[in-house]
Amino acid sequence: MFDYDGEMRFLQGRFRGAWGVRDGDRVLDVGCGGGQTTREAAADAGRGHVVGVDVSERMLEHARRRTAEERISYLLADAATYDFGEGSFDVCISRFGVMFFDDPVGAFANLRRALRPGGRLVAMVWQARAENEWAQAIPATIGGDAAARDDSPFSLGDPDVARGILTSAGFGEVTFAAVRERLYYGPDVETAYENLLQLREPLALLAGLSPADAERARADLRAMLAAHDRGDGILFDSAAWIITAK
Ligand SMILES: C[S@@+](CC[C@H](N)C(=O)[O-])C[C@H]1O[C@@H](n2cnc3c(N)ncnc32)[C@H](O)[C@@H]1O
């Protein structure tokens, strides 16, 4: 899931194969994070241009540090409301960046306005929590207050819900392709443990525990990660959708 610099590098082959970015395309990468997809989209877009947008200046700093291409620009903005200009892009891509909108219909309508007529959205999102081993194992190991669980990553996991949101936002031809892949947390337990503690949900769950329970939970997390050591890293089953819409 991560490398030491916090970049996710799983599931990327399937996503890149699905986005269909072509020479000359103008591409918007929503929630671009460290910019891995932004850079790969720029390579596919040839003489085109890619804008990576993110609400996190820290993530954009990572992205800028790794980016030399002039045909990429990064923008610190909320993609849900930012005025990108009507019809400014041919393709809008997002790897796990479009599940966190407070007003999803309004946000996707904003992204649709940013696309030219006939332009398309290609987004990778998590399937439901129940389909994702990592998303069950971590809170089950920590325990704690169920109210501290963060379900936002799974907000588009139900295809009927996601289709309803996208249709209400003005998109059509909505399709879902299932992707199941092993999710890589790190080469060893310690690295995986550090990576896990970058995630919002385990931090929130741990923060709600007494010091003694938190210590017990941290030991349990290490043991749970060790049980997922498959020899070539700490790996969990995962399930995502690649959603395309026009
Ligand atoms: C799970 S990370 C994925 C990062 C990157 N796409 C990747 O695959 O490596 C989600 C990213 O979406 C960004 N994000 C969440 N809501 C956003 C919004 N409304 N506008 C722009 N970026 C957003 C977060 O700051 C975060 O960097």
Number of strands: 7
Question: What's the quaternary structure here?
Answer: single chain
Supply the CATH architecture of the domain at 12-129 and 151-185 and 237-245: 3-Layer(aba) Sandwich
Bound molecules: S-adenosylmethionine
Q: What is the straight-line distance between the termini?
A: 29 Å
**What is the strand content?**
15-25%
The CATH topology annotation of the domain at 12-129 and 151-185 and 237-245 reads as Rossmann fold
The CATH homologous superfamily name of the domain at 12-129 and 151-185 and 237-245 equals Vaccinia Virus protein VP39
Question: How is the topology of this model organized?
Answer:
Blueprint: H1 12-19, E1 26-30, H2 36-45, E2 49-54, H3 57-65, E3 72-76, E4 89-95, H4 104-114, E5 115-126, H5 133-142, H6 159-168, E6 175-186, H7 189-196, H8 200-207, H9 211-227, E7 234-245
Parallel strand pairs: 1-2, 1-4, 2-3, 4-5
Antiparallel strand pairs: 5-7, 6-7
Bound molecules: S-adenosylmethionine.
Structural account:
This protein has 246 residues and is an alpha/beta fold. The protein has a domain at 12-129 and 151-185 and 237-245: Rossmann fold (3-Layer(aba) Sandwich), CATH 3.40.50.150. It is 37% helix and 24% strand. It contains 9 helices and 7 strands; from the N terminus they run H-E-H-E-H-E-E-H-E-H-H-E-H-H-H-E. It has helices at residues 12-19, 36-45, 57-65, 104-114, 133-142, 159-168, 189-196, 200-207, 211-227, and strands at residues 26-30, 49-54, 72-76, 89-95, 115-126, 175-186, 234-245. It has a 7-stranded mixed sheet with strand order 3-2-1-4-5-7-6, sandwiched between helices. Strand 4 (89-95), helix 4 and strand 5 form a beta-alpha-beta unit. The longest helix is centred in the C-terminal third of the chain and has 17 residues, at 211-227. The chain starts with 11 loop residues before the first helix and ends with a strand. It binds S-adenosylmethionine. S-adenosylmethionine is lined by residues 8, 30-34, 36-37, 53-56, 59, 78-80, 95-97, 100-101. Residues 28-122 form the Methyltransferase type domain. Keywords: Ubiquinone. This is Ubiquinone/menaquinone biosynthesis C-methylase UbiE. It holds the Pfam family Methyltransf_11.
